[in-house]
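Running this now, will post back.
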Amino acid sequence: MAQRPLDEVVEFAENPEPRCPCVLLLDVSGSMAGQPINELNEGIQLFWQEVSKDPLASKRVEVAVVTFSDDVEVVQDFATIENSQPPVLEAGGSTAMGSGILTALDMLRNRKEVYRRNGISYYRPWIFLITDGAPTEPQEVMQQAAQAIQQEEAKKGVAFFAVGVEGADMRMLATLSKERQPLKLKGLAFRELFLWLSASMQRVSSSKVGDKVDLPSPQGWGQV
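Update: finished.
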């Protein structure tokens, strides 16, 4: 058996709970500047606060934050809610969405390998994409991203959620997942969205690994 890095050994010895990994994949392009990015930041803060109130979820839910504009940035690698702080995001630049999706999928693959290496069970990972625009990359990159999502979905490797803020290309978002239609955010209801996400993560993390979980209705913030 390959030797495990010391930080992994310590991390999972201190917290051997099953993990519920979620990538927040967030559009921080120029069109998100002003009120949208402020509301998004408040929503993220609220998500951390709500999950932190649940002792089990705060040990099991692992969040990574990935942003895309001109480039893709891993703002926060996977960490449990109890061991991390919500980031504060700034907006500017274009919309490298396809590269963001491919980065998120790579991160999940690597993280699942870490769990396996350390004998940690895990729930089906989530990618939660929020965007207010259309990709500015070549079409082939988005096609590659959609194909990669659908391959992972087919083997139950990921649950992919797409949320379009006002101005988002909903038709394009609908091509990404075969399992789930994108939802359109009502106005700037980021607060309601992140309350829903925290409630969903708490439901999943309190279930048994592998069980089917009924999620709350997104009616308060989303519409098809």
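The chain is about 40% helix and 20% strand. More later if anyone needs it.
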